[in-house]
Amino acid sequence: MRSHRNVQLRRAVASSYLGSLIEYYDFLLYATASAVVFTKVFFSDLDPALATVASFGTFATGYLARPLGGVLFGHFGDKLGRKRMLVLTMTLMGVSSFLIGLLPTYADVGAAAPIGLILLRVLQGISVGGEWGGAVLMSAEHATSRRGLWASFANAGAPSGMVVSTVAMTGTVAITGEAAFLDWGWRVPFLLSVVLLGIGLFVRSRVEETPAFLAAAKTTAPRRRFPLIAVLRDQPKTLLLGVGVGLAAFVVQGTLTTFVLAYGVQAGHGRQTVLNALTVSSVCAVVGIIGWSAVSDRFGRRPIVLIGAVVTAVYGFALFPLVDSGSGALLLVALVIGQGVLHPMMYGPLAALYTELFATENRYTGASLGYQLAGLGAGFAPVLFAELQRASGGPSTMAVSLTIAAFCLLSAGCVLALKETNRRDLIEARPVRSTAGAADAG
Question: Which residue in 45, 204, 249, 355 could disulfide with 346, CB within 3.0 to 4.6 Å?
Fold first, then answer.
């Protein structure tokens, strides 16, 4: 029995990591393309600064759709099981990304091109909104110990997807050349999504439903309420605090993986130099996410997230001077520290933390909704920062750094208001509330 459960745990972790990698390959491939390609392909009639805002705006629509995906797939994931929803989310993402690779440009069909791009981006957002909660729960609910470590592999899929998507873009540019890349080469990485989809579905098909869900299905009385209604009625404060805890991590994620990519090119770095630095820092982020999550199993989720938020608030004022230095080495240092060390402290433990905040029968919905609402920060940060710069008419980043610090301090306050959750039993767990008049987290 134990051997079988260990096998299923390994399969669940592998499935969660690979599925998350594929989802974020597709989702973050769009982020890279929005920074370096889509301004010229889909918004060629706009002023360059406004085109950048518009391109990041379509990028943000995917984040707007993520809470909808979390609620939709969370509802059926809580009712019918985690595994079925994960097959659907992966299929939806793969097909949407493949179709982006087939879209005509603005020069071909005019305004219909960006409209089609936005619609497919929304489908991407719905997909990734449902994927994360199921992927995390598959690992966390199969684990009997070291839950932070095993759940973190789903979060590690995000920077892994960034690495693969950046390498795919870089390799395509190297093979096709700049002119051909802007003409048709940018489509190739999107079209490759269908290959990754086939691999991911095969791996995912070998994982069984989680023990926690099966136990809840047998022992819980018939559930008449929608999971969403249950979360909003029973744990509204916990949900809001959960959103607040994750906001800073996502604002910093959007800053480092999208805004700095465009800002670095504007500051004089070669596009390939910035992409290379982003690739290296993303590899470091995989190690950082898994490492800090494992540490949170021993010392708790709260102290790791808290320290990360406070230090990152200060680091936000050093990030842009390092990028502005003109040195490729300092650019690399800036991204490695930010994405490989500090951001994982805030982001890595979130997989286990969100899982532990909610009871089994509402966990997919509650965890997904909290995480995806927080994820709006990553979608809107590049748009907000680009607009701040455009409105100021100059390259000043002080307002950007102040905004990052404000979000970090907000997350620090929210994590202090929650009880520690790393010792909870996911099958027997009661809902977690804030420290003020809350039920004990166990």
Answer: 249
